[in-house]
Design brief:
Layout lengths: L1 E5 L5 H9 L5 E6 L3 H8 L6 E3 L2 H7 L4 E4 L6 H10 L3 E5 L6 H12 L5 E4 L6 H11 L6 E9 L18 H17 L2 E9 L10 E8 L4 E7 L13 E6 L2 E6 L3 E6 L2 E6 L13 H20 L7 H20 L3 E2 L4
Helix pairs in contact: 1-8, 4-5, 5-9, 7-9
Bound molecules: nicotinamide-adenine-dinucleotide and (3R,4R)-3,4-dihydroxy-4-(hydroxymethyl)oxolan-2-one.
């Protein structure tokens, strides 16, 4: 599988390392309009052709898959270029700035018969997968309540300065992953009620969001996110999860500890992520999930099946993001059919 990567910034380095660890995958082209970032990426893909212009790269061709690691503003144009060249696409989250753009992008790739996967990697973190697998095993019976919580004081602005500058921050950037975990666990949601706050005066968007979801499965879930929470231990970038079911409870606690309680019996195990050779703590959790989702994409293409977070699926996660902002702005519950 020959891959072209567009966007060689902060996060793309993880994607390049991950491609280098996947048998049968080869990055043959890299592109960034910033030559300095391009040359840093070239160190991880020394045989790849390097471009500063995406249109030139598409015209030269020689690849089957485009992996987009640019920020959101460029996603629609690049996905549409990839569709025009009949290519499979992986696009980083958030898929687009608006739901209208997102729908146009999904339609553009669907019309070619190629695959679009949104790089929604948090549901592939090994600790989160352990919770998904335990829930799907039926061990705690029918779930009726869930909470997925991401609260941290980690300085994300240092590596990603653009996060301090957008009108929207935590729901669009991080909450999107946590909402996606809620969907992976409990299925689609019908209604959402959200509140937001900005605590850090040095940023433009909201850094705290609390969301209440009704799922078609009958589960009520709470998704809460904060980058204004000073806590010990600092749990970045862990998502903490609690699920109550008719037969018992599941807890993913700080330090990647998973407990399953059935009746009075509690079983606890360590579900820490593997520290890959190229990974750094505390990011190793996210970095491992990048390798896993990219492997999932390759496996799905080889088997001719859709990846879990394909374009159609991700429209539902992105609709929750839009609905959460609408709810917070209008101070009301939003029914997803409104969007
Ligand atoms: P970044 O600004 O560090 O890197 C983006 C790069 O894309 C820059 O080098 C920029 O020059 C380049 N670029 C932008 N438009 C381009 C274009 N049209 N043609 C060529 N190059 C272009 O951003 P980042 O922090 O690496 O984030 C990239 C994406 O990854 C964002 O969508 C972000 O939300 C996402 N992200 C995902 C995760 C995750 O866990 N899934 C984590 C962090 C960031
Ligand atoms: O951009 C974000 C993401 O997708 O995961 C964590 C992050 O890097 C900062 O919130």
């Amino acid at each position: 599988m020959k891959i072209a990567l567009i966007g060689c910034g902060f996060f793309a380095m993880n994607q390049l390392h991950a491609w280098n660890g996947i048998a049968g995958a080869e990055v043959v082209a890299i592109c960034d309009r910033d030559p300095e970032r391009l040359s840093l990426a070239a160190a991880l893909a020394p045989k790849a052709a390097a471009y500063t212009d995406a249109a030139e790269m598409f015209a030269a061709g020689g690849f089957d898959v485009v992996d987009l690691a640019t920020t959101v503003g460029s996603h629609r144009a690049l996905v549409e270029m990839a569709a025009a060249h009949q290519l499979h696409v992986i696009c980083q989250k958030p898929i687009a700035p608006t739901l209208a753009d997102a729908r146009a992008m999904v339609n553009a790739v669907d019309a070619t018969g190629k695959t679009l996967m949104i790089h929604e990697n948090f549901r592939w973190q090994s600790a989160v997968r352990a919770v998904i697998d335990a829930l799907r095993s039926g061990a705690i019976g029918e779930p009726f309540f869930g909470r997925i919580s991401f609260r941290s004081g980690y300085d994300v602005y240092a590596g990603q300065p653009y996060l301090a500058e957008g009108e929207r921050f935590i729901i669009e950037d991080l909450g999107i992953h946590i909402l996606d975990i809620a969907r992976a666990l409990f299925g689609d949601a019908t209604r959402i009620t959200a509140t937001t706050r900005r605590v850090n005066p040095a940023i433009k968007g909201e850094d705290v969001a609390t969301m209440l979801l009704d799922h078609t499965s009958g589960v009520t879930s709470v998704v809460d996110c904060s980058y204004a929470t000073r806590r010990s231990p600092e749990t970045f970038p862990e998502s903490l999860i609690e699920i109550d079911g008719t037969l018992g409870t599941l807890r993913l606690d700080a330090g990647y500890t998973l407990s399953v309680q059935i009746g009075d019996q509690v079983e606890t195990r360590d579900v820490s992520p593997t520290l890959l050779s190229w990974a750094d703590r505390p990011w190793h959790n996210i970095q491992e999930s990048v390798q896993i989702i990219q492997q999932h994409f390759v496996d799905c293409l080889n088997q001719g099946i859709a990846p879990e977070t394909d374009g159609q699926d991700n429209l539902k996660t992105f609709a929750l993001v839009e609905a959460a902002y609408l709810s917070a702005n209008e101070n009301r519950t939003v029914d997803l059919t409104e969007l």
